[in-house]
Amino acid sequence: MILEVKEKLKEIVMKNVDMKISFKDISDETNLIKEFILDSLQIVNIIADIELVFEVAFPQDRKTLELLTKFDELSNFIQKMIMKDKVN
Amino acid sequence: MNHIGGINTLFYTLSNGGTVVIADNRRAEEICKIIEKHKVELLPASPTFLNLLFLSGYYKDYDLSSLKIISYGTETMPENLLKKLNEELPFVSFKQTYGLSELGILQSKSRSSDSLWVKVGGEGYETKIVNGKLFIKTNTAMLGYLNAPDPFDEEGWFNTEDRVEIDGEYIKILGRDSDIINVGGQKVYPSEVENILCQISGIKNAVVYGEANAVLGNIVTAKVNLTDDFLNIKAYELKQKIKEFCNNKIELFKIPVKIVISDEDLYNERFKKIRNQ
Q1: Distance in angstroms (rounded) separating the CA atoms of residues B74 and B48
Q2: Could you tell me if the ipTM is greater than 0.90?
Q3: Boundaries of every domain in chain A
Q4: What CATH architecture does domain A2-87 belong to?
Q5: Which helix (H) or strand (E) element contains residue B47?
Q6: Are the CB atoms for B47 and B53 separated by under 8 Å?
Q7: pLDDT at B157
Q8: B-proximal residues of A, 50-79, CB under 8 Å
Q9: Mind listing the pLDDT tens digit for each residue in B223-256?
Q10: How far is B235 from chain A (nearest CA, A)?
Q11: From CA B1, how far away is CA A44, in angstroms rounded?
Q12: Which residues of B touch A43 (CB under 8 A)?
């Protein structure tokens, strides 16, 4: 399941960055903000797209921003939220 | 008849020897039926109602040839809708009205039937534009609000909070200050974005408003009613279509970040868009 999350997440990132990138440009260690020089608008669009695609809600705080500094952590966080929603 | 615009129409028509036809309900079909039956010449309406009239297509099923004027006001008219209405009802003259419950209805003159530029003022009314905002002074203004601060300045000017553009004697109303969305310090007029969204064939109606956001202060959110063209579309897919359509038409920060698909009406009982979600 985590692989599926990562694939979808990569698609979202690719649609929101200015530069042309492929799946292999994003690894578990990628700092999305730094690597793809994300501006504020791109960041909120990525978060909003994640919420739409995975049907989850991000907390409105700085922690959400920190998640974008490591692709792997962001993927795990999304997966946890999906699992939590399923349990509830 | 719970709006200054309705009261103005009632008094104006009766004092000029006209007949007022009051509808049982405000559905587009009912209004068209009444126009045909009573040979109505003037239809005062909000842009939201006119959009519903246009989308419903009922205006094609009834004889509306008696109509001479459609006056519109209470909210910003989308340029694209005005253009379509002029094409579909070429025998009608579209006139923009302007007024506030606090001040009354000002005389107004649209530059042309398909223009959003309007001259407002006339006898008894003074107007001025300060920092892009319209101020009005008149002896017929209300005394003040009950149990609330006096909204008039020392010289009696009332700040309408309406942002306007100026071209000689004409103004174009961009939107009310309270509706403006501040996205990271950049201003977004909801009506501008709504106007673009309603040009997308699968979108029947749209209302745009700001939503608090930790990164940008506010983000642009659009709530939309869809037509069958977008039946079963997912919100993410719709957002991609919106992004694609808006690209190069408006600045990136104006493109809605959040999309809410809704079956609910996006307007109140007076056919005015509900932006305070």
Answers
A1: 10
A2: no
A3: 2-87
A4: Orthogonal Bundle (1.10)
A5: helix B47-56
A6: no
A7: 96
A8: 51-53, 60-62, 64-65
A9: 999 999 888 899 999 999 999 999 999 999 999 9
A10: 7
A11: 43
A12: 215
